[in-house]
């Protein structure tokens, strides 16, 4: 009988020991999981980050400010400047990680619709950015797109019926060509000339230097509004639509691969004027890196906001 009780006692002790060990393991696992989650919020993850941007200085300036913020915490950042179509296809394919230049609901709507299942729309970067046909203010009699359509003061002949545009793949060019020009009947005489952002700005400057008439495709924010007296033509048919907002966007999986980078980009936002300040520095001869550095040094409060809750390595 004693032997039987001893065996039963040993079995009970073994069972209690196993239960305690399991509880301990569960507590440790929970603790480890909590620590892992906590660490996950702080880890750099994949340190190589590629930021995509189109070739327009408004998005280039923002991209280089974000680049410096990411490098502050230890990332190795490459900026890839491409045509806007390649920018979004590259994000969707995973060859780039993130961009701070998605204009919605209008300008980049076609790219968003095509690739949205492979992209993660992040936070709002800049509010109410506008598109418009634009002229120097000394063209006092030209105030609306309808003035072009009506050939007011023979403006068509004076401009040889040309509107100076930017690169053909730009969202603004698509809207101007497909909506604005036919809606106002400009397709009867006027031609939208493709060029590039810098070429358009050079044409604008050349005309203003000679006080000649010119019509260009322009948007805010843009450094030319710091440099010249310009006016956006009224669009009574609202073919350019209400102002867009600019968003950050990333490839699917970027948040898990580089959580700190995702958090910083998701916290990045600024005004049109702040963007234009960086753009103007670039246009005045600074490199994109120098302009971004100057801006961050001048605005430590903004830098602190964008890096809130993040420990930097530098």
Overview in brief:
This protein has 2 domains: 48-129 and 243-306, D-Maltodextrin-Binding Protein, domain 2, CATH 3.40.190; 131-232, Glycine betaine-binding periplasmic protein, domain 2 (D-Maltodextrin-Binding Protein, domain 2, 3-Layer(aba) Sandwich), CATH 3.40.190.100. By secondary structure, it is an alpha/beta fold. It has helices spanning 2-42, 57-72, 84-93, 109-115, 145-149, 155-158, 171-183, 197-209, 224-227, 254-257, 259-267, 272-283, 288-298, 300-306; strands spanning 48-53, 76-81, 98-104, 119-129, 131-136, 162-164, 191-193, 216-219, 230-232, 244-251.
Overview of this structure, please?
- The chain has 314 residues and is an alpha/beta fold.
- The chain folds into two domains: 48-129 and 243-306, Periplasmic binding protein-like II (D-Maltodextrin-Binding Protein, domain 2); 131-232, D-Maltodextrin-Binding Protein, domain 2 (3-Layer(aba) Sandwich).
- The chain has 14 helices and ten strands.
- The protein has helices at residues 2-42, 57-72, 84-93, 109-115, 145-149, 155-158, 171-183, 197-209, 224-227, 254-257, 259-267, 272-283, 288-298, 300-306; strands spanning 48-53, 76-81, 98-104, 119-129, 131-136, 162-164, 191-193, 216-219, 230-232, 244-251.
- The strands form four sheets. A three-stranded antiparallel β-sheet has the order 3-10-4, sandwiched between helices.
- Helix 2 crosses helix 12 (272-283), helix 2 crosses helix 13 and helix 12 crosses helix 13 (288-298).
- The model is unreliable at 1-40 (pLDDT under 50).
- It is found in: Cell membrane.
């Amino acid at each position: 009988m004693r032997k039987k009780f001893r065996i039963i006692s040993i079995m009970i002790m073994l069972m209690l020991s196993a239960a305690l060990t399991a509880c301990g393991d569960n507590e440790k696992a929970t603790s480890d999981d909590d620590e892992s989650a906590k660490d996950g919020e702080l880890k750099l993850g994949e340190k190589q980050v590629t930021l995509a941007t189109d070739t327009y200085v408004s998005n280039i300036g923002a991209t280089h400010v974000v680049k410096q913020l990411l490098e502050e915490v230890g990332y190795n950042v490459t900026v890839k400047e491409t045509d806007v179509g390649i920018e979004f296809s590259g994000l969707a394919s995973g060859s780039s990680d993130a961009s701070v230049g998605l204009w919605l609901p209008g300008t980049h709507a076609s790219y968003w619709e095509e690739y949205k299942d492979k992209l993660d729309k992040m936070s709002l970067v800049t509010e109410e950015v506008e598109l418009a046909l634009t002229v120097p203010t000394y063209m006092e009699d030209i105030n609306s797109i309808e003035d072009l359509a009506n050939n007011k003061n023979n403006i068509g002949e004076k401009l040889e019926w040309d509107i100076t545009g930017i690169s053909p793949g730009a969202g603004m060019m698509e809207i101007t060509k497909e909506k604005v020009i036919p809606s106002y009947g400009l397709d009867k005489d006027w031609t939208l000339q493709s060029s590039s952002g810098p070429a358009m700005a050079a044409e604008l400057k050349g005309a203003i230097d000679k006080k000649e008439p010119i019509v260009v495709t322009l948007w805010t924010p843009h450094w030319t509004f710091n440099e010249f007296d310009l006016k956006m033509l009224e669009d009574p048919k609202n073919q350019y639509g209400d102002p867009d907002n600019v968003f950050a966007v990333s490839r699917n999986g970027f948040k898990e691969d580089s959580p700190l980078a995702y958090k910083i980009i998701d916290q990045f936002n600024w005004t049109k004027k702040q963007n234009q300040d960086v753009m103007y520095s670039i246009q005045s001869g600074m490199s994109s890196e120098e302009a971004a550095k100057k801006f961050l040094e001048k605005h430590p409060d903004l830098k602190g906001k964008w890096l809130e809750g993040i420990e930097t390595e530098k």
